[in-house]
Amino acid sequence: MSIDEKTVRKVAKLARLALPEERVAPMAAELNGIMAWIEQLNEVDIEGVEPMTSAVEGASLPMREDVVTDGDNPERVLKNAPKAEDGFFVVPKVVE
Amino acid sequence: MTNLTSLTLAAALEGMAQKQFSSAELTDAFLHAIDKANPHLNAFVVVTADKARAAAKASDERRAKGEAGPLEGAPLGIKDLFCTEGVRTTACSGVLGEFTPTYESTVTANLFRDGALMLGKLNMDEFAMGSSNETSKFGPVVSPWRRGNEDAKLTPGGSSGGSASAVSADLCLGATATDTGGSIRQPAAFTGTVGIKPTYGRCSRWGIVAFASSLDQAGPIAKTVEDSAMLLQSMAGHDAKDSTSLPDALPDFRAACSRSIKGMTIGVPDEYRMDGMPAEIEALWQQGIEWAKDAGAKIKKISLKHTKYALPTYYIVAPAEASSNLARYDGMRYGARVAGKDLAATYEQTRASGFGAEVQRRILIGTYVLSAGYYDAYYLRAQKVRQRIAQDFRDAFADVDAILTPATPSAAFALGERSGDPVQMYLNDIFTVTANLAGLPGLALPAAVDANGLPLGLQVIGRALDEESVFAVSAALEKAANFATKPKVWWA
Asked: What is the complex's ipTM, to 2 decimals?
């Protein structure tokens, strides 16, 4: 499966990464180099194998009470905001 | 009392307990060493001298009151992936701008609880994606080691290159690091230091900038196996704030270092003998086997037959998880925003200007393998191959107590020497990545130097939650290797 320039543009769009036009072809070549190497996984017999979903066998995710344990601290939350005003994040206009 | 900076953590704690010197004196000695070395090594990206001096003074006061913690007064370096309250944390990426956390990561909070203090933040590959420290926004870290009499700048490895370089050059007693595919163990092996990645879930990931959540684990880089055990003891432990943090009680890791390995069975996997592997690595491995035998261990050949598929599996799983984790960097809530003509353009330009080339490449691969129509062919298949790799280990550990391998397929290389081809760079992690995929503890320790005088490391892998056997075997090998070579000081 080879990645063409159209796919690179589409994936960059999905990933919200501006990719200058002159980088599209080199990026396609780089990604194909990596994906060609990854193709060797097709040799592995995975018939009947359960996908691994837990890094440590038998470890299960605990549930906790659905209660608020933190919060009410808008100054700390907004401290690193590129733009903030009156206790809110300021973001570009999204509706006309 | 000369050369406080060359002490091990254990010796420095003993020296402070015996009132031979104070934490304030020790901290000053390290700050002085950093001042001289950092312009050459670029290991620290932030030096928190005032905070460190204040913390040392407070530590000396606690000790005087008889309230010394297990790491009381120990000056450490902290990898820039750990959020530190009030101290800039960027994962060495442009996208985080001047991000200054208003909270402390669990691992660093645990270290400070036990009396340790921070000298500053350590350089690393951007978002921990790299094996040579060349992807950092702040420029590469330089290894204190050199090839013979050459003055070519060598890599300390990556991604925890700042941690490895700083510990190796005596700029801190020990350092925090993280390991997603080998980022603790490969730099430790390249710099003659000790690094352990514990079992997945031993250390809380809360407050550590996420790369690939099912693989990321924190651990220490230290001067000795015992020092690494002492640091891990403080870093690890259950944390309700990380749902993957293991609830299991922590054994006494330091005590495990003096356990005999007589009667233990150590596995040697055939598949770790790679084509083109330098003869010196093969010889080192044989030497390690002999040392283990001399210490009373039995050696058993084992087969980990899916080993060659570990790296390609990793390069699906890790980028997929990274593309998802890094979606949060949108320039809205924190980080450096680059304004575009509309919201979508603002996202796209913020991310394009904030992320470096390797990070962008991995985000694109991750997005591609998760995109509609490809999920089954790539991500699902990779998670099944990952199960095969983990099963190989489970089968092997039915017969052996630990596994011995080389830590890396070569000694350190020069900066720039391998940055042209991503796949060549990825091969650095060929011996370490399997333990991440299977969630197992792995430790790299220095065992010899090559013909150029550069350190080479061995790796010990253990069962899940059995760091004790890893420490016991590693300490026995360390004793036999008696590795005492230090880099020649050219930076001060």
From this structure: 0.95
Contact (Cβ atoms closer than 8 angstroms) between residue B324 and residue B366: yes
Q: Catalogue the active-site residues of B.
A: 79, 159, 183
Tokens of A96: 């006309």
8 Å CB contact between B65 and B31: no
Angle at B449 between CA B443 and CA B452, to 5 degrees: 135
Answer whether A27's CB lies under 8 Å from B361's CB. yes
Q: Determine which of A91-95, B162-166, B277-281 has the lowest per-residue pLDDT on average.
A: A91-95
B463: number of Cβ within 10 Å: 20
For B309, name the nearest residue in chain A, comparing CA atoms only. Answer: A41
Distance CA B81, CA B87 (A): 12
pLDDT for B467 beyond 70? yes
Tokens of B386: 């990952």
Q: Which domains does chain B have, with CATH numbers?
A: 125-158+172-492 (3.90.1300.10)
Neighbours of B24 (CB within 10 A): 18
Are B385 and A41 inside 8 Å of each other by CB?
yes
Domain boundaries, chain A: 5-43
Tens of pLDDT, residue by residue over A44-80, are: 999 999 999 887 777 777 888 999 988 899 999 999 9
pLDDT on residue B2: 57
CB-CB under 8 Å, B363 with A17:
yes
